[in-house]
Design goal:
Layout: H1 5-49, E1 52-53, E2 76-77, E3 89-91, H2 94-100, E4 103-106, E5 108-124, E6 129-133, E7 138-143, E8 151-152, E9 157-162, H3 164-178, H4 184-196, H5 201-210, E10 216-220, E11 225-230, E12 237-238, E13 243-248, E14 252-260, E15 272-277, E16 284-291, E17 301-309, E18 320-336, E19 341-342, E20 347-352, E21 358-363, E22 365-370, E23 373-378, E24 385-389, H6 391-400, H7 437-459, H8 462-477, H9 486-507, H10 512-533, E25 541-546, H11 549-552, E26 555-559, E27 578-583
Antiparallel strand pairs: 1-2, 3-21, 4-24, 5-14, 5-18, 6-13, 7-9, 7-12, 8-11, 9-10, 11-13, 14-17, 15-16, 15-18, 16-17, 18-23, 19-20, 20-21, 22-23, 25-26, 25-27
Length: 586
């Protein structure tokens, strides 16, 4: 049978179209399935070795880099957990090291001029403090200088006094004056008696010329200076030699500094010292003139003194001052301050291992601070490389992987008597310049809420303590952690955890003593936060210390007043402690 051409064309066209459609449908689906299969395989591999997490919120897992949904911090790569079984060694990928900006420095020696920072106060020069006394008995009719702080000049009248003995002596003078031609010796004896009572020649001459007895006699100052103590009032009856005022000449004052035992070897008589009062741009310079021969038993502080000329009397007694003392120091092994993660009782650093991508956590014993470095007594050897930048990130990764870190040591410091565990927190870092005002204000709100809690600790009633702790907790939850980034964010998170835990334990306890123990950890972390991020409040804060708290281990707290009101003992030892230093407002 013959087919016409038209039929042939139709059949061939149908076959071509069918083949084309089959290729598109079945071939494309196969390619798509293959692509999906490869994508799934790649995704599985990525999930195993390329996950990203937050160093402070390890529950976060993402397949791509980005920001933490909880705190906004940049995510970091998750390292392979099986790569190293040593609990002190952390291995990281090249990309993770680059992202963390890990920098190292070789441990070496140092011969440098270091600066010792000292806190102190201005005090009156005790050699220039005088007592203004009465030289005759009497009754005060009027005080011409009637409050402390008034300036008085030598020869200026300070009080009007009625003295029966002085009235009688004046009568004797006038009678002797009448007999001076026949008995000049009697007149001279009457004059000497008045001079014995410090009556001046001018006053004696005035009595003789007027011929009248002064009922109220003006007492004149024997000194120049400022009245530092007023010891009598109008109407008071005084004995001969009794003190009316203490007068201090402030043209020269003492700058008295507090030096801890460990720093005493750096200070010697004759050292140049520069200081300035808090809140003042003026810098004063003097030399160390005296070092106390004794140590204050509780604070372990030695007083060091410098004499300062104060002609304009700008420096006032009890004014807070901060000094810098230049010292020359040598050390065989030193590391930068930035290499040390300090947790109170432990100092740790990360050391680069032979493997380029591995870092070992090393506990070190530190000696004196030398400028921006620490002397190393043990734990490191010359030539080793320590991490100077990115150590926080390394430690966060160690915590994430369950390894030993600065916050998770191999042993704890739990007290066997009380079961209380004192937390270890990082050293203070200066993040003030990079911290937003909003974050500082939120932190200041926590500090304001903390003060009533401290007062409640003094009273020692469990229920009010819980109520105030709840208010501190409420303020703490309002702190926006996303306002601090990088190392500052990690530092805040390291402080936030002990504060939250302490407040939780205070709220859940009806035992006043247990609440006071937990207050130790809260105070430590809050003080560190204020030192690190700044005090935006209107007033400076006083960091105070009791050496007998915490079973004689010592404990600190924050106060808005200089007076010591001890929150750890209350009425038992209400004024035990001292001011360690002040946190100035920004």
């Amino acid at each position: 049978m013959q087919l016409d051409k038209k039929t042939i064309y139709i059949v061939l066209g149908t076959l071509v179209i069918g083949l084309a459609l089959g290729a598109i449908l079945f071939g494309g689906n196969s390619a798509e399935n293959q692509a999906e299969s490869l994508s799934a395989e790649h995704s599985h591999e990525h999930n195993e070795a390329g996950l990203w997490t937050c160093s402070m919120h390890p529950q976060v897992r993402q397949e791509e880099p980005g920001s933490c949904p909880f705190c906004g911090m940049d995510l970091i790569p998750v390292a392979d957990a099986a790569q190293d079984d040593n609990p002190r060694v952390l291995k990281m990928s090249n990309s993770a090291i680059a992202l963390a900006n890990i920098q190292t420095q070789t441990v070496g020696s140092l011969n440098a001029d270091a600066t010792l920072v000292l806190n102190g106060r201005i005090k009156a020069d005790q050699r220039l403090v005088q007592s203004q006394t009465t030289h005759f008995p009497g009754r005060i009719e009027k005080l011409y200088k009637d409050f402390e702080g008034e300036y008085v000049r030598k020869g200026e009248r300070v009080a009007s006094i009625y003295s029966p003995e002085l009235v009688a002596a004046q009568n004797e003078l006038l009678e002797a004056k009448k007999l001076s031609n026949t008995n000049p010796t009697l007149l001279e004896a009457a004059r000497r008696k008045l001079k014995y009572w410090k009556v001046t020649d001018e006053q004696i001459k005035q009595i003789e010329e007027s011929g009248e007895v002064m009922q109220n006699f003006d007492l004149l100052s024997n000194y120049n200076g400022v009245i530092t103590k007023k010891l009598a009032n109008n109407g008071a009856h005084l004995m001969q030699g009794q003190t009316l005022y203490q007068i201090a000449d402030l043209s020269t004052v003492w700058a008295v500094f507090e030096v801890y035992e460990k720093d005493l070897s750096k200070v010697k008589i004759g050292d140049k010292i520069q200081f300035k009062p808090n809140g003042s741009p003026t810098v004063y310079e003097s030399t160390v003139s005296f070092i106390s021969p004794s140590v204050e038993a509780n604070s372990r502080i030695i007083e060091v003194r410098a004499d300062v000329r104060n002609r304009k009397e700008i420096l006032k007694p009890d004014m807070f001052i901060k000094a810098q003392l230049s010292t020359s120091q040598n050390a065989d092994l030193v590391i930068p301050r930035s290499a040390v993660l300090w947790t109170g009782k432990r100092s740790v650093t990360y050391v680069k291992s032979d493997d380029e991508n591995s870092f070992e956590l090393r506990e070190v014993e530190l000696g004196e601070a030398i400028g921006n470095s620490y002397q190393v007594l043990s734990g490191l050897s010359a030539g080793e490389e320590v991490v100077t930048n990115g150590a926080f990130t390394l430690d966060a990764e160690s915590q994430l992987k369950g390894k030993i870190s600065m916050m998770t040591p191999s042993s704890n410091n739990k007290s066997p008597e009380t079961g209380f565990k004192e937390v270890e927190i990082p050293q203070v870092y200066d993040f003030k310049s990079s911290t937003s005002k909003a974050f500082q204000n939120q932190l200041n709100a926590v500090a304001k809420a903390y003060i009533p809690l401290k007062d409640a600790m003094v009273e020692g009633n469990a229920r009010p303590i819980r109520d105030q702790a709840e208010k501190v907790k409420a303020s703490l939850t309002k702190v926006d952690m996303s306002l601090v980034q990088g190392d500052a964010h990690i530092h805040w998170m390291a402080l936030l955890t002990p504060m939250e835990e302490s407040l939780g334990k205070i709220n859940n306890s009806d035992d006043r003593d247990e609440q006071r123990l937990q207050f130790i950890n809260l105070s430590k972390a809050l003080i560190n936060a204020l030192d690190s991020f700044g005090n935006s409040g209107e007033n400076m804060l006083y960091v105070q210390y009791c050496p007998m708290a915490n079973d004689d281990k010592g404990a600190t707290w924050v106060s808005m007043e200089e007076e010591i009101i001890n929150p750890y003992f209350g009425d038992m030892m209400l004024h035990c402690g001292n001011v360690e230093y002040t946190i100035e407002n920004n």
